[in-house]
Amino acid sequence: MNTNATLNATEVTHSARSIPLWTRPITSRPWLLVTIALIFYAVRMFRLISRYAVNIIFSDQWDFDNATLFQKHSLWKMFDWQHGPHRQGLGALFQRMVDPLFGWNSRTESFVIGGVIVAAAICALWLKTRLYGKFSGFDVVIPAILFIPGQWATWFMAANFAHGPFPLLLILLYCLAWTSKRQAVRYPLVLLINFVSIYTGFGIFLGVVTPILLTLDYWASTPQTRLSKSYFTFAVLLALASLGSFFIGYKVLPGLPCFSLQPQSPMSYLAFVRKLSER
Fold it and tell me: Which of 30, 171, 214, 235 is surrounded by the fewest CB atoms within 10 Å?
């Protein structure tokens, strides 16, 4: 009885493999579903950009473009440039490298931002396979989330590489770096991406997370695979130094004129958040 069942299963598997790939039901090919979803949502994003993006410098662009366009600065000054509560970081360097190629056209800049988000979506899908293996049909939600139209302001209002697109890409690259099995690759990558992220938009919060993750990773590892104490101490100190360097010359520049470091009541902030969610 068991032998017959094994033979039947083998026959079914063999017959399934003999069916041409293009004739199988699409639901049996989750990778194809995910690819179609990625293309569909990316095309929708670029259509929205094409419809609404304009070649007009607008709002905050008049401020953070001082780092790369309106004034002359060194590469470090561009990287270190503070705009509101965050710094421009890798976004400014990328803008300075790419924008002259198309005459500082802010409409084209929106399309480049779309390309950065596509790269981030590919990294997110790659991260999924690194962590959990093959795709499933549920993975179509990954591109659906990353290309949600609610982030239209990132795409074509006051387009800023540092504010949204690059922190998104860097966080996903950061997670991918942690999946590397080789310590000689994993920790230098984590520390490098951590430093760049701290200076790029609100990627600064990785600076708080990295020392904690390094400590947890050290204690969770077996003695055979654990870093030496000197290497571990150096990595943690370097991560803390990266975060501390962010505040050298830092100025408190809130993004809203009504911001206060001394709130009158936590309930007033809850009411403010509720009003924003109702818009």
Answer: 30
Q: What pLDDT score does 26 carry?
A: 52
Which has the closest alpha carbon to 218: 177, 183, 179, 266?
A: 183
CB burial readout 184-216, b (16+ within 10 A) else e? eeebebbbebbbbbbbbbebbebbeebbeebee
Per-residue model confidence (pLDDT) at position 94 = 96
Look at residue 18 in the predicted model and tell me its pLDDT.
Answer: 52
DSSP, collapsed to helix, strand or coil, labels residue 83 as strand
Residue that is written with structure tokens 């590489």 in the block = 161
* Single-letter amino acid, residue 169: L
| φ, ψ at 86 (rounded to 5°) | -125, 175
Q: By three-state DSSP, how is residue 258 classified?
A: coil
Q: What is the dihedral of CA 122, 185, 233, 89, to 10 degrees?
A: -50
Please list the alpha-helical segments (H only) found in the chain: 2-18, 30-52, 61-64, 75-80, 89-98, 106-132, 141-146, 152-156, 165-178, 183-198, 206-220, 229-246, 266-277
54-65 pLDDT, tens digit per residue, is: 999 888 898 999
Cβ-contact 175, 209 below 8 angstroms? no
Please name which of 43, 173, 156, 55 lies closest in space to residue 110, comparing C-alpha atoms: 156
pTM tops 0.85, yes or no: no
Parts of the chain with a pLDDT under 50: 1, 7, 9, 12-16, 21-22
Predicted local confidence at residue 269, as pLDDT? 74
Q: How many residues does the chain have?
A: 279
Whole-number pLDDT of residue 263? 62
Other CB atoms within 10 Å distance of the CB of residue 266: 8
Coil, helix or strand at residue 16: helix
